[in-house]
Every structure is written in C-alpha cells, then in structure tokens.
Specification:
The complex is a heterodimer of chains A (115) and B (111).
Chain A: E1 3-6, E2 10-14, E3 19-21, E4 23-26, E5 32-38, E6 44-50, E7 56-58, E8 64-68, E9 73-78, E10 87-97, E11 100-105, E12 109-114
Parallel strand pairs in A: 2-12
Antiparallel strand pairs in A: 1-4, 3-9, 5-6, 5-10, 7-8, 8-9, 10-11, 10-12
Chain B: E1 4-7, E2 10-13, E3 19-25, E4 31-37, E5 43-51, E6 54-57, E7 64-66, E8 76-78, E9 87-94, E10 101-102, E11 106-110
Parallel strand pairs in B: 2-11
Antiparallel strand pairs in B: 1-3, 3-8, 4-5, 4-9, 5-6, 7-8, 9-10, 9-11
The chains are: A mainly beta (115), B mainly beta (111).
Amino acid sequence: AQSVTQLDSHVSVSEGTPVLLRCNYSSSYSPSLFWYVQHPNKGLQLLLKYTSAATLVKGINGFEAEFKKSETSFHLTKPSAHMSDAAEYFCVVNYHTGGGNKLTFGTGTQLKVEL
Amino acid sequence: DGGITQSPKYLFRKEGQNVTLSCEQNLNHDAMYWYRQDPGQGLRLIYYSQIVNDFQKGDIAEGYSVSREKKESFPLTVTSAQKNPTAFYLCASSLVGQPQHFGDGTRLSIL
C-alpha cells in the first residue's frame, strides 16, 4: 500500500531564514507528488507538483521541492521565510492505478514563522 | 471566477439528525471528492465520483452518503449512523490525472 510520511509535525523558523519541510513516500509505482498549503479554516491550495518531468520543481510563493527517487523523498524548501508562510503544509502522493485519481495525504507539518 | 463553493461554512447537528453539506463547482471538472479532516490526521477520503450518476466509497464511507445528479454538484449527507461527525469537511474537484482543487470547507459540530 502507498503511504507518505511527513517527518516533522511542527517546524519553527525565524523570518528571513530558510525553510525545510521533509516528506518521504513509499512506492510500488511511479507516483505524482504534490505539496499543498492550508491556512486556518481554509481549503488546501496547490503549491507545486512533480509529474516525472524535471526533478527540481518550482512552485508559487518562492517554494520549491526536489524529487529524489533513491531516497524516496520530496522535501519542500524556501530560501527565506515570510510571516505569511505560517500555515499547515501537506505532502500528497497520487498513485496512478486503474482506480483513478486518488490521493494519499501526509499528516501535515505546521510551520511557524517568528520575528 | 471559477472555483468550488462549499456551504454552509459552519453547521451544527443534533443527535439523531441527518445533515447535508453542499459542494458546487463551476470548473467543468468531471471528478469530485469529499474528505474529512481531523487534527493531526491529515485528510481522509469519504466518497468520490468520476462521472455523473456514479460514485465510489473512499476509506471512511460508513455513516455518510452522496449523490451526483449533476456535474456541478456533489452533496454529502452525514447520517445519524456517523457516531463521531465533528470534523472539518473538504470538497475537491479535478480533471482526470490533474491536481485537485479544494473548497474552503464546512466545519460540522454536534449540539
């Protein structure tokens, strides 16, 4: 069965410092991978997606992620955190099976940005 | 603007009562989904529909029901059989093989 693990439930950074949110997945097939962001009492917004093209994926708001097949990882990074980045982030895997477009969600990482 | 509209934003249910959550999309997406979100557990799939008049159970369908009579609409009913309905419910839609777009959710609580 597919699974995705977000290694940190909470991450705290200072404004202007780099952000690293870690994600590992288990795979029997070649997956598509996504990062979504959720602000309080809101839905999820797509940050970026990997679909077997370039392994370094750039997304919105300065975020990027690198797909590393050998490490089964898809970590999310940003060079310089902003206060508005404080939110919950979900790593999501889409396995291409005959059952259609179904997603498996990680349990989320809450990002706190301090002055 | 195209998007997904969930209503109401907040909903309260009495014991033994069924309640229905609305989800409407004007993105012309074929597929629609319902998720339940509990703190620390990520999102879990309740039901999904890939085409009008057809839907499938997700991982936690017990105590819920859906219908898909129109492409734009995918309402979710939380029945009295769902013993722990307090959660944040998210509706999503997508084209086949594309990322899902989410509504802003409905927060359901028990009176």
